[in-house]
Amino acid sequence: MSLDKVIVVLWVVFWGYWIVSAAGNKKAARGSRRRGYLVRMMIVLTLFLLFRNPETRRFVAYHRISHNPAVRICGAIVCAAGMGFAVWARVHLGRNWGVPMSLREGHELITSGLYRIVRHPIYTGILLAMLGSGFTVTAWWLVAFVFFSGYFHYCAAVEEKEMMRQFPDQYPGYKRKTCGMIVPL
Fold this sequence. Notes:
- Helices cover 63% and strands 0% of the residues.
- The protein is mainly alpha-helical.
- The relative contact order is 0.16.
- Helix 1 (3-21) runs parallel beside helix 4 (69-93) and helix 5 runs antiparallel to helix 6 (140-166).
- The protein has a single domain (34-177), classed as Four Helix Bundle (Hemerythrin (Met), subunit A) (Up-down Bundle).
């Protein structure tokens, strides 16, 4: 199987797991789903306008970052590791998981697993998977990586404000103990 197909299979399995594991989550808190719609719509509109240009589409769709098999294999490994990172974080989040910037009824502060290291490990994992896909398949994944880096940073900042509001006694200490918001530095 080619590395391109390996990446496709990884993403299909990942999103399949993501959809199936969403069943049984806690209900969304009132008014929580409306958050971030404007930002999501701006990203979609920007990508739509960017990719209306046939030259941009062609370049991004067919431009490989590297033809070196070692680089492409490392990219596939980074992609798989990022997905594993996101799934592991998702398992620890449990029924509290929801779309970015949404709140769950009876939300809990999760500090176990990867949440001991970084405060938003699902975002970290998905970004790593996109980065690895970019080095394995096409530059399209690196464009997605750039856009989603900004989007996830925005989401994490909004979520952190909400967590400070919901957990004023616990969250400041938790922030001090972790290595970072998305990048564990």
